[in-house]
Amino acid sequence: MKSKIMEVFDGIQSDLSHKIRLKNSFAREDIRLIAGVDLAYWEEGEATVACCCICVLDFSTKKIIEIKSLIDEVNVAYMPGYLSFRELPLIMQTFKKLSNDPDLVMFDGNGYLHPRNMGIATHASFHLNKSTIGIAKSYLKINSVDFIMPSNNVGAFTDIVINRIVYGRALRTHKNVKPIFVSCGNWIDIDTATEITLELINNESRLPIPVRQADLETKKIKRRKSLLF
């Protein structure tokens, strides 16, 4: 049985889901800066603390031009399917620290690939007013639907189809390496989300550069802070 707060969250997600548009709201040539977002959690005494890191990449040079992070206590408990309510306050505060204004944002997490199509990448798009992409390292099974493993070739993918709708893709970014799971956040289509993701893969990781860098930064901060507790 769902709690009152979960029912409230359901209502918010339901209202926003009707506003999702899985179409590009931009021209490819206008994408100059792409941000990657990730969070890490740890305990400090009785408190749960999180670090949000945002890394901004120059799409033409594939170089990181700005990194900002913020640490704060988390006051919303973890509830499966409602992660955005836990993470959005810190994400929005971290975005305020940026000197650069990204044209597109990639999240370490899901977007449309979510039971109510409202993963963090999708939910955050409405607050940021930006096109977004979800990049997940592991598969979130919805309605008992498994993904089909793509062939062992760079760029190979299989669509994740639930209720005859494409929720996302299992994408192979390196040969002999596990796929990642790409889903639209908002104001972008799945083909463009896939193409941009592949353009941001280097030899160091199966993850696109800005998401990988944000992941590394949050892990580094977490290790440093955890040594104090």
List the helices and strands and how they pair.
Layout: H1 4-17, E1 33-44, E2 47-58, E3 63-73, H2 83-95, E4 104-108, H3 120-128, E5 131-136, E6 157-162, E7 165-171, E8 180-186, H4 190-199, H5 209-226
Parallel strand pairs: 1-4, 4-5
Antiparallel strand pairs: 1-2, 2-3, 5-8, 6-7, 7-8
Helix pairs in contact: 2-3
How many structural domains in the coordinates? 1
Low-confidence stretches: none
Total DSSP E strands: 8
Q: Please state the CA-atom Rg, rounded to the nearest Å.
A: 17 Å
Q: Mean pLDDT, rounded to whole units?
A: 96
SS-derived structural category: alpha+beta
CATH-defined fold name: archaeoglobus fulgidus dsm 4304 fold
Q: State the end-to-end CA separation.
A: 36 Å
Reading off the top of the CATH hierarchy, the class is best stated as Alpha Beta
Major sheet details: 8 strands, mixed
CATH superfamily: archaeoglobus fulgidus dsm 4304 superfamily
Read across the widest sheet, the strand sequence of neighbours is 3-2-1-4-5-8-7-6
* Gross morphology: globular
Q: What is the second-level CATH architecture?
A: 2-Layer Sandwich
Tell me the number of helical segments per DSSP (H or I, 4 or more residues long): 5
Binned, the helix content reads 25-40%
What sequence of helices (H) and strands (E) makes up the elements? HEEEHEHEEEEHH
Query: Strand percentage, roughly?
Result: 25-35%
Short description:
Mg(2+) binds at residues 38, 108. The protein has 229 residues and is an alpha+beta fold. The protein has helices at 4-17, 83-95, 120-128, 190-199, 209-226, and strands spanning 33-44, 47-58, 63-73, 104-108, 131-136, 157-162, 165-171, 180-186.
